[in-house]
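Quick start: what a row looks like.
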Amino acid sequence: MNKKGQSLYRKAKLRIPGGTQLLSKRPELFLPEQWPSYYSRAKGAEVWDLDGHKYTDMSYMGIGACILGYADADVDTAVKEAIDAGSMCTLNCPEEVELAELLCELHPWAEMVRYARTGGEAMAVAVRIARARTRKDKVVFCGYHGWHDWYLASNLGEKDTLDGHLLPGLEPAGVPRCLRNTAFAFMYNKIDELKSVIAQHGDEIAAIVMEPIRNYEPEPGFLEGVREIATSIRQF
């Protein structure tokens, strides 16, 4: 039994909206009333809960961030050295320039780099840039891209618009209703759905937002079709 983890989670729900800081880490998504919820330590692909039980992490692995596994020795050493040198300063750290150069080398289509703290924040920045560059307001997307207003606005019309995009039941509470009809969804591998949106709003679309692949392989011609459509709407 995971007594300590569940006990702490019940307490957390009194102080933290939803119980956790990240929706995808809520115990109810996995095993309500039984999920260990909290860890005491983690190493490699193994996790220990507050009761001392050891598990093999076959789930999100730090929400996909820990490609080297938990507590990687090289990463931990570098982090500890950075802490000893001081991790906060009025001046800029030189590593941000080194990383920017490396990212541009790995992604030659990019010429400059702007850092963000989360994926949702990065997508909000990208959508704002697209709207500023094109001077158009509407976005068409596929998949889950965070909780910011531009994305949740798609649920201001039909409340189940986002249900097929990884996380169902996302409420647009607090999203200005004037953003209705500024974000439109299409399903992965459903090129006809994208074409339908473009047919209605093509001259108002600032960007097409999607991941090339998440859980499913693209059907033949799907990604090529999206690329062709994205190129064509530049002409509007």
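That is the whole record. The chain has two domains: 3-56, 118-235. The first helix runs from residue 3 to 15.
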